[in-house]
Amino acid sequence: MKHAENDTEESDPVGGADQQWECEVTWQDDGGDRESVCESFQLLQIDTGCDSPKDLPVGSEKWYSKNVLRKQRHWEKIVTAKKKKRKQEKERRKAKHAEDKGVAHQHSKRVLKAITKERLLAAKEAAPWLCIDLSMTSHMTQKEISRLAAQIRRLYGSNKKAGKPFWICLTGFVAGSPISEECLRMNDGFSNYLMDTTPESYLDLFPLETIVYLTPDSENALQDIDPHRVYVLGGLVDESIQKKLTLQKAQEHSLQTARLPIAEYMVKNTNVKNYHSETLAINQVFDALSTYYETQNWPEALKAGVPPGKGYVLQETAL
């Protein structure tokens, strides 16, 4: 058996990989398989100028065995997937950078929860207290009690978001009472709310001279919020609108009373129903108090707390 000979030009020894090789085999034994040996030699050749089988010249696919082609296609899929993933990651980072541009660093939910808890607990020592008097719920219908429970949830949610929160206390909150059961039923996590609940009356918890009962029927407009005072809101949803009920209760105990300064900063707005009311839900009153406590601005506070449906607009808006 003679060795295989290759006809190449000596002028370019480095570029031999780019030249076509021929397989010439001379068999001493007529029983040899010349084609099999040639095919084995051809599989050893590498064409570095071809990235994929598609780039090969027509008719050259015979150089690749089925196994080589299968591996080549598999590798191409991997490369394509990696490129796609890198592109998606780049777009995601770009979108996040655009979203966070000019915005303060966002904390995780756990960190935000801890910050909120710390802020609320600090309010118990230094901020004004807001008590919801629930002693009148026995005279309310089930529908009214449900509405009150929803208002308590909204009030607590607003206080959690406030930059300068109040400390909330539910007085006259008796375990097993209709309002207690409704709060637990309607408000997820109510038992974990960061606030006080007690069956006692606010009259037994605080010195009377520190209490300010907030009622829309008071003659005194609230001028400022004193962190050393306790502000009481009557937990009353009365669809029949019993006049001066909370005022009478405050006067029975010679308590100081006040109302939101709606008449001082707002005017009646003409509407189809000619409806005007200064009676607000407890969460609406709280929104006004909370906004004023942060901004020291009554027009802004009243805009936050008094909905347009009450028939009032700010004086500057009416001009």
CATH fold-level topology of the domain at 107-260: Alpha/beta knot
Order of helices and strands: HHHEHEHEHEEHEHEHHEH
- Characterize the overall form: elongated
Structural class: alpha/beta
List unreliable stretches of 5+ residues. 1-34, 43-50
Architecture of the domain at 107-260, according to CATH? 3-Layer(aba) Sandwich
Rounded mean pLDDT score: 80
Measured distance between first and last alpha carbons: 112 Å
Defining traits:
319 residues; 42% helix; disordered N terminus; two-stranded antiparallel sheet; alpha/beta; Alpha/beta knot
Describe the protein in words.
- This protein is α/β, with parallel strands linked by helices and 319 residues long.
- It has a domain at 107-260: 3-Layer(aba) Sandwich (Alpha/beta knot).
- 42% of the residues lie in helices and 10% in strands.
- It is built from 11 helices and 8 strands.
- It has helices at 34-43, 66-100, 109-126, 142-161, 178-186, 202-205, 245-252, 262-265, 282-295, 298-305, 315-318; strands at residues 129-133, 167-171, 196-198, 211-214, 230-234, 256-258, 266-268, 312-314.
- The strands form 2 sheets. It has a 6-stranded parallel sheet with strand order 3-2-1-5-4-6. Strands 7-8 form a two-stranded antiparallel sheet.
- Helix 5 (178-186) links the parallel strand 2 (167-171) and strand 3 (196-198).
- It is elongated, with a radius of gyration of 41 Å.
- The N and C termini lie far apart (112 Å).
- Mean pLDDT is 80; it is low at 1-34 and 43-50.
